[in-house]
């Protein structure tokens, strides 16, 4: 059976995102790894503190990051993380996001079809990040829990998710997020306050409607 592309799976969500004025009936997405608590501060810092030069918009010193950037990161890590030995700028490599870093790391540590142990719960995009180009296989590791003991709890979770979906609220199941225990739904606080409020309102309304149907 042909696999559906990531773009095809995400398009219905990304093309219908909730906005209080522009799209009030859209989908409230609380599942992205973004920190909206700090976005305003980052925006202000980027606009007021960062200074660029024409050289910034060239190939510069290579694809691993400029010396200025690597020096700043080395100083930051040495100051706040206190490594056993001081990190030097030349020891750092920058990439455009976690997917690229995992891809580079995959090429460095293994060959196609090698396995890499990933302890659960874990970032659900690791299999694609390590596998798409480097060809590594993620082997999920359960270091502390016998999953077979929880089959009844997983079944109850599936039933709850189905009820929520009947009422218009879509929750990612713990099993898909590689959670170690049933019922560990993740709500990531990745939206502005008004969007989070709308999302929780829909969630609570769905729970209430589910209880009414059960009666």
Major beta sheet, specifics?
2 strands, parallel
Please count the helical segments.
7
Determine the strand fraction and express it as a percent band: under 5%
Q: How are the strands of the largest sheet arranged?
A: 1-2
Structure summary, number of beta strands: 2
Shape: extended
Give the proportion of residues in helices.
40-55%
Describe the protein's architecture and organization.
The protein has seven helices and two strands. It is mainly alpha-helical. The protein has three domains: 101 residues, no CATH class; 34 residues, no CATH class; 49 residues, no CATH class. GO terms for molecular function: pyridoxal phosphate binding; transaminase activity. InterPro entries: Aminotransferase_I/II_large (IPR004839), Ethylene_sulfur-biosynth (IPR050478), PyrdxlP-dep_Trfase (IPR015424), PyrdxlP-dep_Trfase_major (IPR015421). It holds the Pfam family Aminotran_1_2.
What topology does this entry show?
Elements: H1 6-14, H2 39-48, H3 67-81, H4 98-109, E1 115-119, H5 126-131, E2 137-141, H6 151-166, H7 193-214
Parallel strand pairs: 1-2
Task: List the defining traits of the structure above.
215 residues, mainly alpha, 3 domains, 5% strand, extended
Condensed summary:
By secondary structure, the chain is mainly alpha-helical. The chain has helices at 6-14, 39-48, 67-81, 98-109, 126-131, 151-166, 193-214, and strands spanning 115-119, 137-141.
């Amino acid at each position: 059976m042909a696999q559906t592309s990531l773009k095809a799976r995400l398009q219905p969500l990304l093309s219908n995102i909730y906005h209080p004025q522009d799209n009030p009936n859209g989908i409230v997405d609380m599942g992205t790894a973004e920190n909206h608590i700090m976005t305003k501060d980052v925006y202000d810092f980027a606009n007021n503190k960062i200074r660029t030069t024409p050289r910034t918009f060239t190939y510069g010193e290579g694809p691993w990051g400029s010396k200025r950037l690597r020096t700043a990161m080395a100083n930051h890590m040495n100051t706040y993380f206190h490594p056993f030995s001081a990190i030097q700028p030349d020891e750092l490599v920058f990439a455009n996001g976690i997917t690229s870093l995992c891809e580079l790391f995959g090429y460095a540590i293994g060959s196609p079809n090698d396995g890499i142990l990933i302890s659960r719960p874990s970032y659900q995009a690791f299999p694609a990040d390590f596998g798409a180009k480097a060809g590594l296989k993620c082997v999920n590791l359960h270091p502390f829990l016998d999953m077979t003991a929880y089959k009844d709890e997983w079944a109850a979770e599936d039933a709850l998710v189905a009820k929520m979906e009947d009422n218009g609220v879509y929750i990612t199941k713990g099993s898909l997020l590689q959670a170690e225990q049933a019922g560990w739904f993740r709500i990531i606080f990745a939206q502005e306050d008004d969007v989070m409020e709308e999302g929780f309102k829909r969630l609570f309304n769905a729970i209430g409607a589910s209880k009414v149907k059960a009666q």
